[in-house]
Design brief:
five-stranded mixed beta sheet, 235 residues, 7 helices, Beta Polymerase, domain 2, alpha+beta
């Protein structure tokens, strides 16, 4: 079985407190609680990576085909948490963080083809320890900038010594081509400090369309090579 890469540990620090101390919104105790809570989300990422690794190996053995190119994971930083809560007008508290943010733990699953994205979501939906809470299908309905991907909020139990805790994880499924495009778009927005020239925005949108066309053509070739074998499924 593929051994999932370790999720980097969350440093036990009161970063959220240090960032917002001037507001008086957090006490020292709560700052420490935020760090402990983020460790719980780290454990949830490790759980989901293991589940995906098992699914990946099962499909590879049964179909002689690996649907996952690679997986990355991250925990939202205290600074990013605070900025997002502030931007959305929510209180800067532990309870507010738990209630209002679904992407504290995030995973990116890069698939070879579009059909792999839908297949993995379908298989995960049958997993007894995974509850799919919401799905945003940006493949069927792309974002205005042309981005296509499948974003799901899932919940999985984290079993600790004293109890089990349900924890939410955001999973973004993308193809290789769309992940390359999204990386370029991110770098572009960073380079221009989010004020990207209109002409460049149009080029990025066109590039997203070309990436999707490439996805479809490559999958059609893949199916021809496999002799019309459609076991990989689809939408």
């Amino acid at each position: 079985m593929t051994v999932p890469a370790e999720v980097p540990p969350v440093r036990a620090e009161v970063g959220l407190l240090a960032l917002l101390q001037e507001n008086g919104d957090l006490l020292l105790d709560e700052g420490l609680s935020v760090a402990r809570e983020l460790q719980l989300y780290r454990f949830a990422l490790a759980e989901m990576r293991t589940k995906l690794a098992v699914l990946q190996d099962e499909i590879t053995l049964s179909d002689d085909y690996n649907p996952i190119e690679h997986i990355s994971a991250r925990i939202k930083t205290p600074r990013s948490i605070a900025e997002k809560l502030r931007r959305r007008g929510h209180p800067l508290t532990l309870e507010s963080m738990q209630a209002n943010l679904d992407d504290l733990a995030g995973m990116r699953v890069i698939c070879t083809f579009v059909s792999d994205v839908y297949r993995l979501l379908k298989v995960m939906d049958r997993h007894p320890d995974v509850a799919i809470l919401t799905v945003k299908d940006y493949i069927a309905a792309p974002k205005p900038n042309g981005y296509r991907g499948l974003h799901a909020i899932v919940e999985t139990p984290v079993h600790l010594a004293e109890a089990s805790h349900p924890v939410r994880v955001e999973i973004q499924f993308r193809t290789i081509a769309m992940d390359f495009w999204a990386s370029l778009e991110h770098k572009t927005y960073y380079k221009y400090d989010k004020t990207v020239p209109d002409a460049l925005l149009r080029e990025l949108t066109e590039a997203a369309e070309h990436a999707h066309e490439l996805d479809l053509r490559m999958e059609a070739i893949h199916r021809q090579i496999r002799g019309g074998d459609d076991r990989a499924g689809g939408q």
